[in-house]
Amino acid sequence: MERLLNMSNRSGPTILLDLQKADLRVDELTSIRENLIEREEIKKLNKRIKELRKEIENLYQEKHSTELDQKRINDEVSILTGKIKREEEKLYSGRITIPKELEGINKEVIFLKSKMDKKETKILELMEEIDENLKVIQLKEKELDSDLSEIKTKELNLTQREKEIDEEMSELTDRRNNLISHLDPEILKEYESLREEKGGRVVAVLEDGICSCCNMQLPSIKVDSMRDPNIFYHCNFCERILILT
Ligand SMILES: [Zn+2]
User: Fold this and answer.
1) How far is the CA of 189 from the centre of ligand 1 (A)?
2) Residue 10 pLDDT > 60, yes or no?
3) Directed axis angle between helix 185-198 and helix 12-34, to 10°?
4) Does the structure show a pLDDT above 70 at 91?
5) Ligand 1 mean position, distance from CA 200 (Å)
6) Which of 77, 100, 166, 187 is the most core-located residue (most Cβ within 10 A)?
7) N-terminal to C-terminal alpha carbon distance within the chain
């Protein structure tokens, strides 16, 4: 269906091309804004930060639990030290003279000392464990600090990119409103309904009888008839609006 252009508006086709250019840029910017790489990176970093915080919390809990074990064994060693002291005092006091009894006390001292040795070894192991634990905590905290600073930079970058896009969008909206004010409302309606239906590019240029959108060669009889700049032509194949050059 061909339609007559508003006679008072010979610049309609050029305006349509400019309008399409603005709208395509808006489409492009909308997609760029939605898919800004920083947003995905921030999401990943936030996930990593959450995991790191949890890991650090667990490491501190482990450290605390090891410290409690260490304290408990320290207390046991103190009790053992007291017992050994008391037994040795008995042994060397001269009050006990029966050899069998003395031998019994001696055996008890040896047993208590071996028990204490084991506990002291365990304490050393726990101290090493706490040291190792602290080293890992420090590494993770360093990693967390670096991630926190990285996310801050990325958030700033994202805000900056969004701001730039929004500024260009606002300029495009102004340009669009200006173009529309010079366009026949009927043509605008047609253009917008085509854009809704097809999306993207709906205005094509006819060059050497070929539609610039679908690249189809229009029948020469139609091309020959397309001489009137006041007529609103459509491509036979893709039905887009054709602008004559
Ligand atoms: Zn076409």
Assistant:
1) 19
2) no
3) 40
4) yes
5) 13
6) 187
7) 20
Query: Given the DSSP bridges, would you call strands 210-211 and 203-207 parallel, antiparallel or unpaired?
Result: antiparallel
How many Cα atoms sit within 13 Å of 176 on the Cβ side?
A: 15
Which domains are assigned to the chain?
3-32+181-244 (1.10.287.1490), 35-164 (1.10.287)
The total number of residues shown for the chain amounts to 245
d(CA 57, CA 137): 9
Neighbours of 20 (CB within 10 A): 21
More confident position, 225 or 101:
101
Tokens (6 digits) for 140: 């993770």
In angstroms, what is the span from residue 199 Cα to ligand 1's centroid?
A: 14
Residue 179 neighbours by CB distance under 10 Å:
20
**Predicted TM-score of the model (pTM):** 0.73
Cβ–Cβ < 8 Å for 232, 185: no
| Token code pair at residue 88 | 């040795």
Angle at 64 between CA 53 and CA 82, to 5 degrees: 170
Q: How far, in Å, is the centroid of ligand 1 from the Cα of 162?
A: 35
Q: Which amino acid is at 155?
A: E
From ligand 1's centre to the CA of 227, what distance in Å? 18
Query: Ligand 1 mean position to 201 CA, how many Å?
Result: 10
What the block records as the tokens of 56 is 């650090």
Residue 233: enclosing H or E segment and its boundaries? strand 231-234
